[in-house]
Amino acid sequence: MSDNDTQQLPEHEVKAPIIETLGISKVFKVGDKMVSPVSDVTLQVGYGDFAVIFGQSGSGKSTLMSMLMGLSKPDVGEVFLKGESLFGFSEEQRTMIRRKKVSYLPQAQYWIDGMGLIDNVALPLYLLGWSRSKARKKAITLIKEVGLEKEIHQHPNELSSGQQQKAALARALVKDPWVIFADEPTAHLDTKSVEEVTKILMDTSAAHGITIVMVTHDLNFLKLSKKWFFMQDGRLWDIEDRRNPFTNIRDAISYVESEENKDKV
Ligand SMILES: Nc1ncnc2c1ncn2[C@@H]1O[C@H](COP(=O)(O)OP(=O)(O)OP(=O)(O)O)[C@@H](O)[C@H]1O
Ligand SMILES: [Mg+2]
Q1: Please, which pLDDT band fits residue 265 given cuts at 50, 70 and 90?
Q2: Ligand nearest to the CA of 59
Q3: Cβ(260) to ligand 1 under 6 A?
Q4: How close is the Cα of 146 to the center of ligand 1, in Å?
Q5: What sign does the dihedral 249-37-107-85 (CA atoms) show?
Q6: What's the chain's Rg over C-alpha atoms?
């Protein structure tokens, strides 16, 4: 494939939302039954949004995210990135789009043993062919931005879980992505680190104009985001959408809380 593949997607903001889906569904065969963890989901995420997809365990959040990232093709419907059909591109082209312009922030981090913090953060730039000195310079700027200046010469595995998530955020930001997809990035952290990491995630993304799509079942994130979706049994409800089954955020939260308490009994 040519080096120009991401140029097929406009660098500037277009009128369409940055991410849009039209009626996407995923269907799996389990034994002799068909299951649909994501069913007829239509959503729009605008440029620079901090969008939270919230829902109970098993409601289909990660399955939806893998389709939004172009990793898994919907069985029905389409995903658009900057107005272009993501699955209209070849698999190689989608890989290149992700490598250049999409970052993923998971729950737990994987670090390369033989590399220190700076090189681990610079890794996405090495994969894009940047020179070592240029990549390290950029990585150092971001490590400072996320507040790890004092730890800069350590190995990421020596850092606390909260610091590792900050390092992971620096690595997610280093290539100036259009979007960061985060799947429960604070699930393993204590309350104080959750607050710190979330604030840095929100502030740095806003400063760099990056769109965030974050999956969580932590209710605390709802108050931080103006754009949120609620997922329930594979269906997605845009909370601003009047067709959703809840008239307000409180109803949705108390529904989820009562379901979670049921699980505990
Ligand atoms: N490849 C697959 N084959 C069969 N079923 C699947 C497959 N992938 C996901 N599922 C099912 O789809 C449902 C939704 O899974 P998913 O991982 O998307 O949920 P989730 O909302 O991310 O949950 P959690 O909060 O626990 O991470 C689950 O019941 C899961 O077992
Ligand atoms: Mg999940």
Answers
A1: low
A2: 1
A3: no
A4: 32
A5: negative
A6: 19
Token pair 């605390």: residue: 220
Position in ligand 1 atom list of the atom nearest CA 60: 18
What does the pLDDT average to over 110-134?
Answer: 95
- Cβ atoms of 236 and 230 within 8 Å: the answer is yes
| Ligand 1 contacts CB of residue 25 (under 6 A) | no
Q: Is 30 in the pocket of ligand 1 (CB under 6 A)?
A: yes
What residues does each domain of the chain span? Answer: 5-264
Among protein residues, the one with the nearest Cα to ligand 1's atom 16 is 60
Instruction: Name the token pair of 72.
Output: 């898994």
**163-188 confidence digits (pLDDT tens):** 999 999 999 999 999 999 999 888 88
Ligand nearest to the CA of 183: 2
Residue 63, ligand 1, Cβ within 6 A: yes
| Whether the CB of 26 sits within 6 Å of ligand 1 | no
Task: Find, among 127, 129, 151, 126, the residue nearest to 140 by Cα.
Answer: 151
Q: How far apart are CA 37 and CA 17, in angstroms?
A: 24
For 193, residues 6+ apart whose C-beta sits below 8 A from its C-beta are: 160, 161, 162, 165, 186
- Separation between Cα atoms, residue 184 and residue 220, nearest integer Å: 12
Instruction: Read off the pTM.
Output: 0.88
Evaluate whether 148 touches 129 at the Cβ level (below 8 Å).
no
Nearest CA to ligand 1 atom 7: 28
What topology is assigned to 5-264 in CATH?
Rossmann fold (3.40.50)
Longest dimension (CA), the chain: 56
